[in-house]
Amino acid sequence: MTISPSFRLPTLALLGLPLIILPMLAQPLTAAPSAAPAPKAAIAARQAGYKKMGAAMKALNDQLKSGVPVKATMVAAAQTIAATAREQSRLFPAGSGPTAGVSTDALPNIWTDRATFDGQMAKLIAESGKLVGVVNGGNVDAIRAQAKATGGTCAGCHRQFRADN
Amino acid sequence: MYIRLFHWLLVALLAFSWWSGEQHEMEWHRLSGYAILFLLIFRIYWGFVGSSTARFSQFVRSPRSAFTYLQTLRTRPYRATAGHNPVGGWSVLLMIVSLIAMVTAGLFAVDVDGLESGPLADYVSFDQGRLAADLHGLLFNLLLTLVALHIAAILYYLLRLRHNLIGPMIHGRSTIYMEGAADLPVGSPWKALVGLLIAAACTWAIGFR
Question: What's the complex ipTM?
């Protein structure tokens, strides 16, 4: 969304205020229970999510490797990756790092360099979203390239923020 | 000569595999693994038809003879014999077996992103592939331990027993053969060629199907 510079700041603020405040009012009522899961639950949930994405990525790559890729399998895999990716970023609450008391490969710099981490998460969501579209398009070469781009965001983030790489 | 070539190529490829794995250069890591697979297939073949000292039947002895051999190490001066001694034979066998296990695990291994995988990984599930990857890493550590033992033993022979095992492994000449105590074992080049073709065909079938 681009903002036209002809708007004056006070006008903008007045227009935008309800947009900001209304969700803030609504959020504690509706989204509070799922907004900040307990650290251990968050770790279990995100690990399950990453496994699901890894398995889906493998399923997609297995199709690409075979001579006759099945489109339905690839579409399902891409949708799993994209849908799960959107869930992951809220599963890193404070205290769910190495100090949480359960085994996790999440490095402490996720929380000290949160902006970069969130940026990587946004990249994953963007690329995996694009992947769904490309897989639906059905061009195998394009799918291969986009699968690689999506996997690249996994690998890139893992090298920065995940132990045992 | 085939065994010496096998040995030093293996050393170089293991180092390269480690490096490429650490650098996430998985295309190179796979190719290096195929090259090791090729060497291993040839080595197994050569263990049955190769020169006398290369054959399993020649150097794989009972554990009892290995212990007996260890006792003889106390007597001085040390007198070397041709080929692997009974303990060295076990060392070779263990290293070859763990290499085969490591390469096999690598063929089925899948990385954490489901992005990179061994050539046979489409036959297994993601979880099984991850297990294979973990085993691949564990077996590498086992192999490093065996290599450390191997080098320690060579240094022991060199420093304590005053017997150089490294030189002959490089240039192929040994005082044992110069004194005429044994004939220098030579493998048939034709059999070697057949082995190279078999190893190439197997590697091709697995890696580039």
Answer: 0.73
User: CATH number of the domain that B7 lies in?
Assistant: 1.20.950.20
Q: Two tokens at B177?
A: 């053969």
For residue range B132-190, what is the model confidence (pLDDT) as tens digits? 999 999 999 999 999 999 999 888 888 877 777 877 778 777 766 655 555 566 778 88
pLDDT band of residue A23 (cuts 50, 70, 90) is very low
Query: Which residue from B minimizes the CA distance to A65?
Result: B122
Determine the distance in angstroms separating the CA of B181 from the nearest CA of chain A, rounded to an integer: 53
User: Exposed, middle or buried, A164 (CB in 10 Å: 0-12/13-18/19+)?
Assistant: exposed
What distance in Å separates the CA atoms of residue A56 and residue A80, rounded to the nearest whole number?
Answer: 7
Q: Which tens digit of pLDDT belongs to each residue from B75-108?
A: 777 777 777 888 888 899 999 999 999 999 999 9
From the number of C-beta atoms within 10 Å of its C-beta (0-12, 13-18, 19+), residue A143 rates as buried
Q: Which of B24, B115, B125 sits opposite A61 (nearest CB)?
A: B115
> Which residues from chain B sit within 8 angstroms of residue A88, using beta carbons?
none
Q: Let me know how long chain B is.
A: 209
B127 touches chain A (CB under 8 A): yes
User: Is the domain A37-161 a CATH 1.20.120.10 member?
Assistant: yes
Element (H, E) at B70: helix B63-72
Bridge partners, residue A106, by sequence: A162
Taking an 8 Å cut-off on Cβ atoms, the answer to whether B115 and A66 are in contact is no
CA R_g for chain B: 19
Range of the domain at B59: 2-74+83-207
State how many domains chain B has: 1
Residues on chain B touching A59 (C-beta within 8 angstroms)? 114, 126
